[in-house]
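Sat 14:20. Reprocessing the chain from the morning session after the first attempt stalled halfway. Input below, unchanged.
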Amino acid sequence: MEPILTLKNVTKEYPGVVALDHMNLEVYPGEVHALMGENGAGKSTLIKVVSGAIKPNGGTILYERKEYTSMTPALSKKLGIGVIYQEFNLVPDLSVAENIFLGNYPTRHGIIDWKELYKNARKVMEILGDSIDVE
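Finished this time. Tokens:
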């Protein structure tokens, strides 16, 4: 089995700090990984590099054997890479469904497809084993 995501010698430097130093990682389909470490260990930097929020100074990223020197948010989204940040804030005036898909609503001819939004939110809640009303 081939890895779905491979990082080879990925480096990210900030002035006076090396956040990622020739980092290597392979992720295979179906695997679940946990990133652990002290503050400043590079966990958030790694996630931001993979999601395209920041560009690495060096190294390569392979996704399904296609090589990239850096990602962009649009590209990572297209490839199915998404991030839910720890400091996630809900919008109290929106429904559960609207909060789940905030900024990524299904559209039809440029208009939010509410029926699809609620259907997708119900699927998410079903996967999570929860019966909260999404509307």
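The chain has a mean pLDDT of 90.
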